[in-house]
């Protein structure tokens, strides 16, 4: 038995999304969604639909305009055949797939499903199947021609940038960057992403070595991105902690928005543990330093919202620095502005808690505590607690708290460290440690 989402209202009436048993689909505007809806009233990640012969369900993913089931707004609900689902201007009917349709017609539709997804699902038949799904699409890296899958993008191993795919090693630097920006001579690139490039640099007059982050010039006209870029400076300049990368200055020179940061000669936890997981003793030292950094930020009433292995640096002596405050917000100040709107997601899905997926603007310190648990899990195993070949599969695991207990992957883990990680990763924020002071209770036993 299969299920079908039949569009009865929207840009393509009678469009069919066929879901195999135990299949999952995410509907939204984001290019990684299994079903892409080109509707401004639909959030980037809007709704998750799970079909199971034992009982299907629908989950709103913190959308701005809501998910409506039979004209009633729902957060999470059981789903039965005959139900109507409304997302923005789109209405779908959840029905049982007519098994009497010819196998040849179904096979023909299935062979073209992947191409249809790349064309923003404008055709009528899309098949979602646990064993043969859209995660198997492959695209060549624009830089090195390496094959990139949807799973690579979901796992952060590749980037979809300017309508092209790049592996993590090939995302291009901004072209024509001058050798000197704002009195800093650029020495070598350190990395970057779709928003900015980071360089090692030296002040031309006083020889101070720093890191300088330059926003990509194609984004400088987007007010929200510019404000978020400088938000990192707003918090970072006032922070003075040994385990947080310091920010010295920010501004605009020539056509470049820039941040001047402390230069720290290290690698990310993502790079190091991805090659070889840390030992238990190393992970304990990482935990203590990371918790010191996060506790300091929380003492200022600031929640980071994007703690993940690639935002934590460590050097050869074991010294650790937390970086990238671009997603940070003050959670205790009612007058503090937040750039996040409901329906937007902030952070990285594999490391952020369910409540942040639902509404990133409303999270508090417990979101960071959850992310600490995710980072420590990665340090010991070299893999995140939640993985999925499709966006729907990943979201289903995060929202359901479905992950392999750390003790099964690391049998020798101390009791206190095991409890710390497992408690931090509770899907219900009320069941986690509520403050960093409570987290420190576990650390005292390590």
UniProtKB/TrEMBL annotation:
User: What is the protein name for this chain?
Assistant: Serine/threonine-protein kinase PrkC
| FHA domain boundaries | 25-74
What GO annotations for molecular function exist for this entry?
A: ATP binding; protein serine/threonine kinase activity
UniProt superkingdom: Bacteria
Keywords, A to Z, come to: ATP-binding, Kinase, Nucleotide-binding, Transferase
Q: Locate the transmembrane regions by residue number.
A: none
All copies of the Protein kinase domain together span 184-443
PROSITE patterns linked to this entry: FHA_DOMAIN, PROTEIN_KINASE_DOM, PROTEIN_KINASE_ST
